[in-house]
Structure formats: C-alpha cells, structure tokens
Model the fold of this input.
Amino acid sequence: GENVEQHPSTLSVQEGDSAVIKCTYSDSASNYFPWYKQELGKGPQLIIDIRSNVGEKKDQRIAVTLNKTAKHFSLHITETQPEDSAVYFCAASIGGAQKLVFGQGTRLTINP
Amino acid sequence: NAGVMQNPRHLVRRRGQEARLRCSPMKGHSHVYWYRQLPEEGLKFMVYLQKENIIDESGMPKERFSAEFPKEGPSILRIQQVVRGDSAAYFCASSPDTGEETQYFGPGTRLLVL
Done:
C-alpha cells in the first residue's frame, strides 16, 4: 500500500547548526508534499509544502527539496534555534487525492 | 480568522461507552479530514468529508466508527462501544473551498478509555 518512510527518528544538533530530515514515498501519483511541526500537546502546524512541479522551495531558514524520480524529499533547517525543537512529520498526498499519508516523525532536539 | 476548532480537548470514557468528537473547520473551508495518532507514531488518515458527503472513508475501522459533516454545525466523529485500543489523539484538519490541498490541523482531542 501507500507508504512514507522518514529518517532519522531522532536528531540532535547544536544551536546554529543545520538539520536535515529525509522522506521517501511509494506512490508515483503523489503530487503534494507538506511538512508539519508538532509541539507537545498540540496539533501539527504546517511549516512548508512543495508540489510536484517544483524541485525546491525556501522560506527563511526552512527549505524543502523534491526528487520525483527517486521519490524522496527533504526538509532543511538552517541556523537552528532552541524553539525549533519539536517533532517533525513529512506527508505525501495519495493517488492525487486529498488524503495524506504521514511519515513516522522525527524528534528534533536543539542543544544550546 | 479562527483556526480549526476541536472539542473536547480531553475526553475520558469507560469501555463500552460512546465518544463524540467535534470539529469546526476554518471559515471558508468545506473539506474536513479526521486523523488518528497513537503515542510516538505518525498520523493515520481515517476519513475525508465535505458538507453532507463522505468522500473517502478508507481509513475508518469497519465497525463502531462513524463520521458526519452536516449542512449546519460541526463535523462529528463518533466511536461506539469504545475499547482501550481506541485511546489516542484524534485530529481534525480542514482545507479551503478553492480546492487547494493544504490541510490545517486543529489542536486535537485526546481520548482515554479506562
């Protein structure tokens, strides 16, 4: 069935360094790839998304890259800050439909 | 513009009782999605609804679970005869009437079955 694999499951970086989280997906028809940040006890918050007609998108310290041929996409956070500490989820639309399949999540810890 | 609203935020039920979870989408959004999240796991799609219609319920368990989104009022996720395995966080998301795929999530309802 449709599947999204996310790595690593945990990531610890020093404040100011960069963090990279990678996801792969299985459905060739997927065309929408959002990233969400979830803080403890809260709902997922959309931080950036990318569509299949674009290879890269950037918003201040956050960027996402997409390789449709290899079916993988990555989140890059530069100049990390303590408030970036959270669980990050990637997701992919399935069959061109509205529903999203989520990765297992990455717990990012920024060490001061 | 208020975000997606869910209530209650926390719900405790005993085995065999019914749980009703409510979701009010953002203004201008008529697409609603329900997801379930078990501890330390990602979100799993359950159902996608538009006003008065179930569009995709491929993630809903075949028994005890139902969802609706009436013409007036919030979307309701209903779990009958709850069991301990139903304990989870249930999130609702909504997307705009324009057809844009972006889904905005509510704060979730944390269901605990004793």
Notes: Chain A touches chain B at residues 6, 32, 34, 36, 42-46, 49, 89, 91, 93, 97-105 (CB under 8 Å). Chain A has a mean pLDDT of 93.
